[in-house]
What we know:
The structure is a single chain. By secondary structure, the chain is an alpha/beta fold. It has 9 helices and 12 strands. It is globular and about 60 Å long. It comes from Paenibacillus violae. Keywords: DNA-binding, Phosphoprotein, Transcription, Transcription regulation, Two-component regulatory system.
Amino acid sequence: MNSEGKVLVVDDEPNIAEVVRLYLEHSNYEPILLPRGQEVLRTIVEERPSLVLLDIMLPDISGYELCEMIRKMDAPFHQTPIIFLTAKGESIDKLRGFNLGVDDYLVKPFDPNELIARIKAVLRRTVQVPTEVSASQNSSSRKLLEIGNIVIDLDQYRVTVGGKRIDLTPKEIELLHFLTSHPSRVFTREDLLGYVWNFDFTGGTRTVDAHVKNLRKKLGQHDTWNIQTLWGIGYSFEVVQHV
Length: 243
């Protein structure tokens, strides 16, 4: 049976690492265990894991710092999906993680079966667009969108504006792609949290606001399109029609 891919597990608690290893192997993944953060970047380059399962409270470096360092790696390593598996369960901790570009967040103690389900969901999202988007576009074009001077390639997780590549996190690209796939349609923050993040958590809508803010800052202002805020409702991608 072929492996579903490698999963890098960074956790200094041996009992938890062992449980995760067993469930990963049972689900046909290849676990790579590290008790410290210092070898993470090298291991990502050498082993090319499909996903990183990362604790926040490590003995040598914070998981937040590691997440930020991974997102600053050269392509394609900076797009490696990351799930935080941690005892830090406050909303502010989750918000900080999502703002750094983490793909999912699971709090200890956890159900190992839920962990495997979340890993599968994150990996599906890295190669697929939401079902609603897929149904509205043909299979050859649904992952490549071009509107005005912006081109979004979800296959390569690449965004260019006026031919210049824009450095976005994977989640920012997914959010932008989703909005541009439905021009002029208004989505509430809860809608976007469900479609793009595939789950909800207390305080979660604030991470949607933070990602939209980051997108606007990185993309800049343009005459032919913009991400519109509808106060008290949510966001939409608007294409400007010039007369």
